[in-house]
Specification:
Layout lengths: L1 H15 L17 H5 L14 H5 L1 H4 L12 H5 L3 H11 L8 H15 L37 E6 L5 E9 L3 E6 L4 E7 L2 E4 L20 E2 L12 E8 L11 E3 L2 E5 L3 E6 L5 E6 L19 E3 L2 E5 L4 E6 L5 E6 L14 E3 L2 E5 L10 E6 L5 E6 L29 E3 L4 E5 L21 E6 L5 E6 L15 E7 L2 E9 L4 E6 L4 E7 L7 E4 L5 E3 L4 E2 L11 E3 L4 E6 L4 E2 L2 E2 L15 E2 L5 H13 L5 E6 L5 E6 L8 E4 L3 E6 L1 E7 L5 E9 L12 E5 L2 E8 L2 E7 L9 E2 L9 H5 L7 H8 L5 H4 L2 E3 L1 H14 L6 H14 L5
Parallel strand pairs: 6-38
Antiparallel strand pairs: 1-2, 2-3, 3-4, 4-5, 7-44, 8-9, 9-10, 10-11, 12-13, 13-14, 14-15, 16-17, 17-18, 18-19, 20-21, 21-22, 22-23, 24-25, 25-26, 26-27, 28-29, 30-33, 31-32, 32-36, 34-35, 36-37, 37-46, 38-39, 39-40, 40-41, 41-45, 42-43, 43-44
Helix pairs in contact: 10-13, 12-13
Length: about 800
Amino acid sequence: MKTIVLALCCGAAAAVLAQQAPPGSDAQGRGDQRSQRRRQASWPVVIPGPDSIYSKRCASCHGDAGAGAAAGSILPYVRYHTDKDLAQRIATAHSSALQLTAEEQRALAKDLRGMTGTNPSMATGGYIGVRGGFGATRIEPPTAVPDKPVFTPIQVSLKLADGKSLSGKLMAQTDTDATLLAGNGRFHLLSRQGDVYREKPIAPKADWLDNHGDKTGNRYSRLEQIHAGNVQRLAKAWEFLIPTSARLQATPVVVDGIMYMVGWNEIYALDATTGEQLWNYSEARHDGILGEAGSGANKGATISGDRVFMVTDHAHVLAFNRKTGTKLWDAEIGDYREGYSSTVAPLVVGNLVVTGVSCGEEGCRGLLDAYEMATGKRAWRFYTIPARGDPGSETWIGQALEHGCGTTWVTGSYDPSLDLVYWGTGNPCPDLDGSERNGDNLYTSSVVAVNAKTGNLKWYYQFTPHDTHDWDSTQQMALVDEMWEGQPRKLLLHVDKNGMFYVLDRTNGKFLRATPFASMVTWNSGFDKNGHPVLTQPDILCPTSAVNWTDAAYSPLTKLFYGRVSDNCGVAYAGGGLDPLGAGSRWFGTVNRREPSPATTQRLTEIRAKYPLGPYMRAIDLATGRKVWDYNMGSGRSTGVLATAGNLLFIGGQGGIVALDAKTGENLWHVDVGQNRCDGVCLEASAMTYMVGGKQYLAMTGYGVLIAYSLGEEGRAVPTAGRPRLTAPSSPDELALLPNAPGKEVTVRVCTSCHRAEIWSHSRLSQTAWDEVMRRMMTVRGMTLTANEYETVLDYLSNHLGLKQ
């Protein structure tokens, strides 16, 4: 009987456990362990004893150490699969021959894991119940802020100043304002003076329903009440503290004067004109989540009708009645104990709510889900990682496919005329080691266009084939309708972590153009006619990571695309490690660091001197793909951007919010609300804008706080706001940082008469843009210069604070 069992075991194992082995790997050997000896394991190799389950049931086929005998090596498969995977594979391959009890299965899994000499937490794919390394605990966000009393809703009947009556539930009330939910489900915003109430108009209004404002993903607002001529009156309108969620990455959403803000497994409904809380919901957090969700990251909510939707850290999507806060349904996307988590703001498409997962270093299988808004029933699922044997799986040669990641952690876009959902996908796993995933690794580091009703793939474009640099392509997919080569065209714009700015035809995925967004790109030498990059093997990799998840924007007024970028370069490295988890619990893999030559080190130093890191807010001309201007973001380095019809951009920085001229990048104004003591991570979200009662507001999160801004009364002093103020002093340190060159003295005298040096010295503009800024100063602000002074200042700014092409 034992002989029969082993024979069957050998045949199945050779066909299943050793499948898809890349040439030269130890999976192709039969008992040859020399390649393993050449690799240094992070964990001790433990060969099972003669009385072990493995030795008795499997060794005669696979060898005493699992490297192969009559059948192939099982070590590569074991290294890249969990104990659950092993049990399922054994049950499938040996259903009639190898019957194991649960206890025997656990013992066999332990034997197999020990033979690989790799991280034992691979048994559960890295999940060990706590964050960090073995025995680490989660660090809670700070809560040391004063508690603000929360109004308890009550049923009331109010007499209004105009003689009318309102009945319903009073949801919030202060000395000057109140919010009432009437029996018909309509919110009424009220002003209050003692017992006298007056209804505040909600219209004219402009809502912000989705993470990016609308489903195009452009982060562009048609609101223009706040513009360059009055932005100096911008000031803080209100703030709402969220001390239980210090790390806030969410963009709030607004409808009919009510705002919804998401934190870490919590959501708040607020009066959007006062910031007063109407209701909130929270639930327990889940230990052991290793990704960003485990530290509180959440991109926000979305609204449709009377419902608001959000995700939780452990990959559930929730639906609420947005008027009352009642939870309507709760659907699990994936099991967090198998690596799944979520931080994405969902996207409503028709009668479905579409959402993704955020486990890009946790070895999950990336996916995109759609749920019926009414019931929470899953309507469809699209896997970004094909199953073995399905189309696309041929681009995964090796054992990494089943845990290939390719996650979907930033909100996508939707074109109703084509009924297509566009969603970016993350990096393949292990991030930095491609030795067990040879090939392009579809559909990672790509954009996928799927049918909104069925989830079926219409087309895809891969930005980085076989990514080994952690280059997610989850950044926005901005949908614009513009002229292209003389013809109207439906375009998709995308700036990628690999440093390129892409233009695609969104009807069919056709590649139209890719130009550098980073100042220097060394990983490709161009693109073929199909849009496939021509790869290089550089000793210096530029960029190492040009962009991340911070939001970009496109303005149809300026025809410019705006995004945050870091001009970073580093010494290239190679994968080839034995362990997909390395010494930690996340799927980064292990890499072989190259020792750079002196010449390479010198060249890297020169590159970094020529292209300072930044980060910058960068403007790109859609027509040419070329850089128009840079603005050094300084303390706002982790924020995205909002573009408005007021020809303004809003970013985080200088302790709060900064307004830039959308055409030139000039810093026009900022409001300092004290968000400058977090080493640049106070501000991790992007600004949004909305209108209630004919008044435009801006809103943006800080460290544990949501802050709204609006125009103050004309002529009123605003102590927390600061334009470039008149006769503002510049510190000696600021002036010392300016390049020493002819014209510096005149430039400092002229420019610091209105602006501190730290304001204008951060800009990086073309000569044309600097010329326009100076002319504006002369016509709008009354600056007077002689012709010689004008030329001297323009020459200094253009040559020493200009763009480096």
